[in-house]
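[Q] Does anyone have a clean structure-token version of this?
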Amino acid sequence: LALLASACGNVGFLNEPTIDYRQHGNNSVGAKNVRSFRYLWDRLRSRSMRQAMRNCARQARVFLDCYGEVLPPSAVCLCEALASTERKNLFARNQVYWKYKLYKKGFPRLMAQCLGL
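[A] Here you go.
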């Protein structure tokens, strides 16, 4: 929903909790020390960051297929560029990422993106 809202309009910030959330050590999502060397090393070894970028490219293609007719031209162009990265080599992927400012947040993730890990 946020993807569609951002492509066709605006995403706003609501400065109040609307759901309860409880985090504990056995969560399958969250509760991880993302700054630890071990976590980063495991992520780099598993090449899960590269898979995440492939998934992002596929999501862009599906999003464009579903909503392309209602998207503004700039969003169509962005989705087409991002979807094309799945078939590109590392250098060409990085050109798309930099041209459209599709940077990952955080230094380790950005480096993994740039290095194609």
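[Q] Thanks! Anything notable?
[A] The radius of gyration is 17 Å.
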